[in-house]
Design brief:
- It is built from 2 helices and 3 strands; from the N terminus they run E-E-E-H-H.
- The two termini are 17 Å apart.
- The chain is globular, with a radius of gyration of 13 Å.
- It is α+β, with helices and mostly antiparallel strands and 64 residues long.
- Strands 1-2-3 form a 3-stranded antiparallel β-sheet.
- The chain has helices at residues 37-43, 52-63; strands at 11-14, 22-26, 32-36.
Length: 64
Amino acid sequence: MKEYLGTKKIEAEPQEKDGKEGYKVKYPDGYISWSPKNAFEKAYIEVDKLNYKDAIKMLNKAYN
């Protein structure tokens, strides 16, 4: 299977589901889903907190 690295701008807010911490996620096309906290926080960083150093860290995580 091939590997892919994607980027997208989403909206999200903390939300519990079945007693588990996570995030309600709204995609640009309006699709709404839920993501577990660990998976979400590994994949996304808040836009107003993003700086060059964080962007490099995210890219390193994606390729390691």
